[in-house]
Here is the input.
Amino acid sequence: MSQQVVVEIEMPATLQQFKLPSGVNERLQELLDRQDAGETLSENERREAEGLVEVAEFLSLLSLRSSRVLSEGEAMR
Here is the structure.
């Protein structure tokens, strides 16, 4: 039997600004550009790119949810 647990936390406004640091984003773009150009990435480079994409997606999701929570909070005032 599964249970659902709801945890409420305060969402700081700064979460809306979470994004990859510029150097990390540049590295990700470099890897993706090389792949798009038809260059085969090494296994390590491929895993690195996949990991960076996952982190970027997570940060985007976190930012969107933060925006939504803040908007809902303002609407309730």
In short: Helices lie at 22-36, 43-75. The chain is about 60% helix and 0% strand.
